[in-house]
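Hello,

Our lab assistant flagged a job as stuck in the queue for most of the afternoon. It eventually completed. Since we weren't sure the result was trustworthy after the delay, we are filing this so someone can double-check. Below is the sequence as submitted and the structure that was eventually returned. Let us know if re-running is recommended.
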Amino acid sequence: MSRLDLDSDLGKTAPPPKANGKRELTKTQNRQTILEAARTVFAEIGYGAATVRDIIRATPLASGTFYNYFKSKEEVFQAIQDESALRIRPRLRDERAKAATIEGFISGTFRTFLEYVASDQGSFHAIRRNTDTLRVRMDTQEIIAGFEELREDLETAIARGLFPPVDADYLMAAIVGVAFELAERMLRRENPDPAEAADFATALFMGGVRALPTRNRPANDA
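-- returned structure --
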């Protein structure tokens, strides 16, 4: 290639990338439309009674469009859980990481979760509408990852001396169980108050954490 050809090529602007942004935007919007419709349907009639047809009817989309994104109502239900988990998990970890006391760790965890529930009641009602269904289906990848993050944060707090050496796995399960049950009760009230619910949970755990049996640490942890 001659110097003249090289200079000519350098002066050219690169061709614009292939325009596919509109298609991706449509796909994203369709998926969200389906999820929003499913949240409404699950919250109103419950997961067990709901059908794919019910979800499709709650959208302006053609019936075949649903199957471009989800294979079943179970996949939609799991997607709702995963999206909720992905939104709240970073906030929870930030609160726990900056906690300087047991009370700060527990209070921050409950307050952050309950405030999120109060601000996104549609997703929570969709998940909690059928308790039996929830208990057998709360096993999506993102939900499980959130539980594991709580357990890891508890273990880190124990290693820092913030918590006594209690069973982090049991304590994680206790926090999760109380958080979901308390959130459901909170939303049944005329004026849900996340701060009030978080204060109740914090007082409950602060009165009991120090009374929990401690565990002997393995020799290599000493």
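-- support follow-up --
The delay was a queue issue, not a problem with the job. The result is valid. The chain has eleven helices and no strands. The two ends are 69 Å apart (CA to CA).
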